[in-house]
Amino acid sequence: MLKLYRWVSICTIVLFSQSGLVFAQSLLTPAQLQEDLQFIKKAIATIHPDLGFSADLPQLNVRFARIEQEIKQPMTRDQAWRSFSQLNPYFYDAHVTVTFPSIADEVATHLRHGGAFFPFEVQVETDGSARIRSDLMGDTTWAGARILQINSVPMTQIVKDILVHASGDSPGLQANLVSRRFWFFYWKLFGDSSHFDMQIATTRGEQHLRLQAMPIEPTSVKNNQDFKQQFQFEILDNHTALLTVNTFYSKEHKAYLALMQDAFSKIRQAGIKTLLIDIRQNTGGDDVMWKEGLLRYIANQAYRNGSSYTKKVLAGRASATEKVGDIVHGQVDTWVQPEPDHPEHFGGKVYVLVGRLTYSSAVLFSNVVQDFGFASLVGETGYARTRQSGGTNLEHILPNSRLEITLPRFILDRPSGKREPALIHPDIVLPDNPLDAREMIRLLMQKLSAGKN
What we know:
This is Tail specific protease domain-containing protein. By secondary structure, the chain is α+β, with helices and mostly antiparallel strands.
């Protein structure tokens, strides 16, 4: 693990791994840390329209007070994150989180200074259990193995320690968001290491592994920037096609729209009767992506993305009737008209697959297709809230640590206005197996073949 050496100056500490120098970090004084903590409080009060919509405010205030009392010694930026991110679980909203502005930049900097990562992608659960999905390059040799210990520390304790810093609408979503970047959380919380001694359990019994840390950019980070990994189309059989949309954000917007039009053209030409749209890995983006790329082809009536809303009026968004700082309650009055005469309009049956990571704009999309009857939802329930906060496109960088607090400026009810059930509830409940993404597709197709839905 990391060894700590102080220079003569108290302004900087140098962190070493067993393989040598990794990086230097400036120390933040207690006064600077307190200033950052107050910045978080002020940003919440300025931006968020109603923190109590998700958070347990008394518990959150206790956590704020505890962090404030514990700031007595200088800290590095990473140590500051370890302190401030203890607020994250108490927000109960993945749109409210203390985080690093860019995971990709953190990874690149770490690798550039000789760092490396825990070698596996890991699925953790709220009970503290953890299973290997693949290594960081995507190899699935050890997939399914249960991790019992890492460097002699029980995995249940490691997961418990990590979840203390996790954001999300529910404990389940917190665990799933941690699972996207387990290696990142492990590094930021427990430091750098040249190797890992692991105790795992497989179908052949318990085994001991001694593995080197991997000095590579994980495939999961690369895939976030890979257009072909984010958007895919395939014809499954003579009657069924699958569109996988892993994000509603892309710098290649025109390429995305072209891909969607081409997919629906192929659907028409092939005489497809059933379309599956997989958004299980989609953590959101911009609503225009699903309005122009998906609902253009499947909507059969006018729709809107929500019903009632609550918003905070921010600087630059004021009007004659809405002053900066006002909290405004209203109704969504922007309706999108369908395009039934579009040459690629699809009139068959649509199923939208939701799961462990469906979030933000992807939840709004699932709300719309469910409330207006454009599609049936298929998948797991119990992770993301259907009443979503949003408008997190403004940066709120802490002045000293340069960490970020993400905050929403509005809260949106689903189009139907219903608030129960509070979390996404599919029309057809099927498991979202993190070790086998195709399982849900197979199970659904079996149901369809049997004529059950």
